[in-house]
Amino acid sequence: YYQFYRGDGLVFWRSSQVRTFFKVLVAAIALVAFWRWQTSEDSILHILRETGFNMVSVMTSTGHISADYDRWGPFAVAAFFVAGFIGGCTGSTTGGIKIYRFQILW
Q1: pLDDT digits (tens, 9 = 90+) for 4-22
Q2: CA atoms within 13 A on the CB side of 56
Q3: Which of 8, 63, 90, 103 has the CB geometry, 3.0–4.6 Å to 3, for a possible disulfide?
Q4: What's the per-residue H, E or C state across the chain?
Q5: Rounded distance, CA 71 to CA 49, Å?
């Protein structure tokens, strides 16, 4: 954070943990949004916004939700379970195992 404050805007992107976190997050949002798009009549922008907000919330364990994602079907529920299990980055207060531990395991 100090390096970022001092003007090094790319300090976070040099971390493999942060890059992996965002890759997992974007992939999870894309998969669940595609699932919902196939099974729902909502607009794609609404689906992306709602799925994105809820996936970030579950993955970072903030506890905020904007929709009952239990109604989105079994695939979505399983994806949210896995996202909550993965959690966030090391040093954060998120739940889950954390991205870095999965990287070490890999």
Answers
A1: 889 888 888 888 888 989 9
A2: 8
A3: 8
A4: CHHHHCCCCCCCCCCHHHHHHHHHHHHHHHHHHHHHHHHCCCCHHHHHHHHHHHHHHHHHCCCCCCCCHHHHCHHHHHHHHHHHHHCCCCCCCCCCCCHHHHHHHC
A5: 16
8 Å CB contact between 100 and 89: yes
Asked if 59 and 94 touch (Cβ cutoff 8 Å), the reply is: yes
pTM: predicted TM-score of the whole model, two decimal places: 0.83
Region 66-93 average pLDDT:
87
Q: At what angle do helices 74-86 and 44-60 cross, to 10 degrees?
A: 40
CB 57 within 8 A of CB 63: yes
Confidence of residue 31 (pLDDT cuts 50, 70, 90): very high
Write out pLDDT tens, residues 72-81.
989 999 999 9
